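User: Please fill in residues for this 127-position structure.
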Protein backbone atom coordinates (compact mmCIF):
# COMPACT_ATOMS: atom_id res chain seq x y z
CA UNK A 1 0.00 0.00 0.00
CA UNK A 2 1.21 3.48 -0.90
CA UNK A 3 0.83 5.24 2.48
CA UNK A 4 3.11 7.78 4.14
CA UNK A 5 2.44 9.21 7.61
CA UNK A 6 2.78 13.00 7.81
CA UNK A 7 3.78 14.71 11.06
CA UNK A 8 4.87 18.30 11.61
CA UNK A 9 5.62 20.09 14.90
CA UNK A 10 4.01 23.22 13.41
CA UNK A 11 0.51 21.76 13.78
CA UNK A 12 -1.18 20.21 16.82
CA UNK A 13 -0.19 16.69 17.74
CA UNK A 14 -2.86 14.06 17.20
CA UNK A 15 -4.97 13.67 20.34
CA UNK A 16 -5.90 10.08 19.56
CA UNK A 17 -4.94 7.08 17.41
CA UNK A 18 -4.73 8.94 14.10
CA UNK A 19 -2.18 10.86 12.03
CA UNK A 20 -2.11 14.57 11.23
CA UNK A 21 -2.19 13.55 7.58
CA UNK A 22 -1.59 10.65 5.22
CA UNK A 23 -0.03 10.86 1.78
CA UNK A 24 -1.33 8.21 -0.59
CA UNK A 25 -1.72 7.80 -4.35
CA UNK A 26 -1.05 11.44 -5.21
CA UNK A 27 -3.22 12.94 -2.48
CA UNK A 28 -2.73 14.31 1.02
CA UNK A 29 -5.57 13.49 3.40
CA UNK A 30 -5.62 15.75 6.46
CA UNK A 31 -7.39 14.68 9.61
CA UNK A 32 -9.99 17.09 10.91
CA UNK A 33 -8.34 20.08 12.55
CA UNK A 34 -9.78 21.82 15.59
CA UNK A 35 -8.61 25.09 17.22
CA UNK A 36 -5.64 23.74 19.13
CA UNK A 37 -2.53 25.87 19.54
CA UNK A 38 0.37 23.80 18.15
CA UNK A 39 2.82 25.37 20.63
CA UNK A 40 0.88 24.27 23.71
CA UNK A 41 -1.30 21.48 22.28
CA UNK A 42 -4.17 23.06 24.21
CA UNK A 43 -7.37 24.57 22.90
CA UNK A 44 -7.09 28.25 22.16
CA UNK A 45 -8.73 30.21 24.97
CA UNK A 46 -11.19 32.02 22.70
CA UNK A 47 -14.77 30.83 22.28
CA UNK A 48 -15.19 33.10 19.24
CA UNK A 49 -16.06 31.39 15.96
CA UNK A 50 -13.78 33.94 14.25
CA UNK A 51 -10.72 33.00 16.35
CA UNK A 52 -11.46 29.28 16.23
CA UNK A 53 -11.91 29.28 12.44
CA UNK A 54 -8.66 31.19 11.90
CA UNK A 55 -6.73 28.78 14.16
CA UNK A 56 -8.14 25.74 12.37
CA UNK A 57 -7.17 27.12 8.98
CA UNK A 58 -3.71 28.07 10.27
CA UNK A 59 -3.25 24.48 11.48
CA UNK A 60 -4.27 23.18 8.06
CA UNK A 61 -1.86 25.62 6.43
CA UNK A 62 0.99 24.34 8.64
CA UNK A 63 0.41 20.75 7.56
CA UNK A 64 0.14 21.72 3.89
CA UNK A 65 3.29 23.86 4.12
CA UNK A 66 5.21 20.97 5.70
CA UNK A 67 4.68 19.12 2.41
CA UNK A 68 5.46 22.15 0.20
CA UNK A 69 1.76 22.58 -0.58
CA UNK A 70 -0.64 25.50 -0.23
CA UNK A 71 -4.38 26.04 -0.13
CA UNK A 72 -4.32 26.06 -3.93
CA UNK A 73 -3.61 22.30 -3.81
CA UNK A 74 -6.76 21.55 -1.79
CA UNK A 75 -9.44 19.80 -3.86
CA UNK A 76 -12.05 19.01 -1.17
CA UNK A 77 -12.95 20.25 2.29
CA UNK A 78 -15.51 19.21 4.84
CA UNK A 79 -16.50 21.81 7.42
CA UNK A 80 -18.22 20.70 10.61
CA UNK A 81 -19.79 23.53 12.61
CA UNK A 82 -21.75 23.46 15.82
CA UNK A 83 -24.15 26.21 14.76
CA UNK A 84 -25.17 26.82 11.14
CA UNK A 85 -25.91 30.44 12.01
CA UNK A 86 -22.10 30.84 12.19
CA UNK A 87 -21.82 29.83 8.53
CA UNK A 88 -21.63 33.37 7.07
CA UNK A 89 -18.76 34.25 9.43
CA UNK A 90 -16.94 30.96 8.75
CA UNK A 91 -17.49 31.41 5.01
CA UNK A 92 -15.98 34.90 5.06
CA UNK A 93 -12.83 33.76 6.91
CA UNK A 94 -12.58 30.60 4.79
CA UNK A 95 -12.59 32.78 1.67
CA UNK A 96 -9.51 34.67 2.87
CA UNK A 97 -7.54 31.39 2.85
CA UNK A 98 -9.02 30.03 -0.40
CA UNK A 99 -8.62 33.15 -2.55
CA UNK A 100 -8.72 31.58 -6.03
CA UNK A 101 -10.26 28.44 -7.47
CA UNK A 102 -11.74 27.21 -4.19
CA UNK A 103 -12.12 23.47 -3.64
CA UNK A 104 -15.30 21.46 -3.51
CA UNK A 105 -16.81 21.77 -0.03
CA UNK A 106 -19.41 20.26 2.24
CA UNK A 107 -20.60 22.01 5.38
CA UNK A 108 -22.45 20.12 8.08
CA UNK A 109 -23.98 21.29 11.34
CA UNK A 110 -23.23 18.83 14.13
CA UNK A 111 -24.43 18.61 17.71
CA UNK A 112 -20.99 18.22 19.24
CA UNK A 113 -17.33 18.23 18.23
CA UNK A 114 -14.19 17.02 20.03
CA UNK A 115 -13.39 19.11 23.10
CA UNK A 116 -16.67 21.00 22.54
CA UNK A 117 -15.13 23.29 19.91
CA UNK A 118 -17.26 25.26 17.46
CA UNK A 119 -15.59 24.09 14.23
CA UNK A 120 -13.57 21.29 12.67
CA UNK A 121 -12.29 21.18 9.09
CA UNK A 122 -10.79 18.29 7.14
CA UNK A 123 -9.19 18.61 3.72
CA UNK A 124 -7.90 16.58 0.81
CA UNK A 125 -5.09 18.06 -1.29
CA UNK A 126 -3.65 16.92 -4.61
CA UNK A 127 0.13 16.61 -4.69
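Assistant: Residues filled in for all 127 positions:
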Amino acid sequence: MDKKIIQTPNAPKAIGPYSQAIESHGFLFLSGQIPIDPKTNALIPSTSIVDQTKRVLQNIEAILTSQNLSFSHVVKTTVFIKNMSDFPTVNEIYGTFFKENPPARSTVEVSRLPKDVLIEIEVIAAL
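For context: The chain has two helices and eight strands.
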